[in-house]
Amino acid sequence: MAKQISVTIDDAVLRKLIRATGGTVRSKVVADGVEYGIYQEYGVENGFGRGVRIPAHPFMRPAAETVQGAFQKAMADAWKSSAKVQAAIDKTARDVEGIAKAKAPVDTGALRSSIHVDDAEGYA
Amino acid sequence: MNEIEAGLYGALSADTAIVDALGSTAIYNQIAPQTASVPYIVFGPGFGGLENITPSDLRNFVYPVKAVAAESKAAGTLQGHIKSCLHGTALTVTGFTNVYTACEGQIQFVEVGRDGKLIFHSGYDVRIRIDA
């Protein structure tokens, strides 16, 4: 015998955020611009193209982790306007960029210099 | 190797599914020896630190744990074994109580090795919370 239950979901903040943005997805991407960025992040077998194993030097994930709490707080207060939502996302992206640059391993500086904030179009 | 790393190594090397899939206990901390052949598992410190939100010594770390293999299938199989071994498991961390262990972000990429051969990396970012 099936039993019907009632569940109330408190999605008031989510609804307000969707209303504030007009249903538009707001996003930013923080990326590096060198092909070996992922190799530094996770470590690889073929480091420097010479088959040298290199250990992981995470820089992007720690940056995202660091700003997570502040981002959640900012978004909880950002539902009042679309501009605030966008401002919170922009600020968070810039913070991630700065922290990732500070944590990025430096040899020539190319990796560090290539870390940037971008619009989400074109990224999967 | 610190207490957490010893706990991770202990859990991974005691897992018969992992040892069977590897054909050995080729499990390394931070970096595999240059002479080691694939497949192997490598783990190491990712990020995290002291929480400082309780009077106790609560710590929150993320350790990437990944399999490295010459074939996608082998890497994927080991990835599954890593999750079975670590997700929701109480690690033995000397001097601490392991309050939380969970596989979070998935690690999945392929690199081109020497001679143009592909090398598959598959695993998880494993979050470990300990308290003393």
Task: Name the helix and strand elements of chain B from N-terminus to C-terminus, one letter apiece.
Answer: HHEEEEHEE
Biggest sheet overview of chain B? 6 strands, mixed
Question: Kindly, what is the distance between the CA atoms of the first and last residues of chain B, rounded to a whole number of angstroms?
Answer: 19 Å
What number of domains of chain B? Answer: 1
Which percent bin holds the helix content of chain B? 25-40%
The oligomerization state is heterodimer
Shape of chain A: elongated
Task: Examine the secondary-structure arrangement and name the CATH architecture of chain B.
Answer: 2-Layer Sandwich
Q: Which radius of gyration of chain A do the C-alpha atoms yield?
A: 20 Å
Radius of gyration of chain B: 15 Å
Portion of residues in beta strands of chain B equals 35-45%
**Class per helix and strand makeup of chain A:** alpha+beta
Strand portion of chain A = 5-15%
Ranges of chain B with pLDDT <50 over ≥5 residues? none
Distinct helical segment count of chain A: 5
- Give a count of the beta strands of chain A, DSSP E runs of length 2 or more: 4
Fraction of helical residues of chain A: 40-55%
Strand order of the largest sheet of chain A: 1-4
Approximate shape of chain B: elongated
Low-confidence runs of chain A (pLDDT<50, min 5 residues)? none
Report the sheet with the most strands of chain A, covering strand number, pairing sense and barrel closure.
Answer: 2 strands, antiparallel
